[in-house]
Design brief:
The chain is mostly beta strands. The protein has one helix at about 155-165; strands at about 20, 30-35, 45-50, 65, 70-75, 80, 85-90, 95, 105-110, 115-120, 125-130, 135-140, 145-150, 150-155. The protein has one helix and 14 strands, in the order ββββββββββββββα.
Length: about 170
Amino acid sequence: MADPKHIVRTGQVDWSQVWRGRHPFNPASDMRMVSLGDPAGMKQIGAHLIRIPPGKESFIPHAHSVSEEFVFILEGAGEMVLDGVSHPVGPGDFVGFPIDGVVHSLRSKGPGDLVYLTAGRRDPIEVADMPTIGRTTVFRNGQMELFGEDGIERLTQAEWMARTKLEG
């Protein structure tokens, strides 16, 4: 009998076949990501399993203004950067991001990949501050508006995703 959609078997993931990409504004970013919430039919919470190779990062340092999220480390050694201060993290560590303005990012320290579970609400509007590039991004209705000193850049979801794709 086939599993119901509610069960996602992560032990059977072929990491060489999953989405590989980066944050479009962080050249040190390199991730392989598996959606867990979508195949389970979840609409209000986005949940993903992410793998970062040694020496690489997840997203650009950012802080959310609307949606809380968390990271739970499953494998490997990493460094969670909170407001510019690095903190070692490893298997079993939980890091929560309430809406308190703390700028955060995650780096894999090696020697192996850093693997973690992350999840957060899927609010209709999200605002993310990215202080390292002087931009604030508003995510709304599949559109991104990036506000900075140089003006406003508007991107569709497809344009944003095209900037994230890594080969291999």
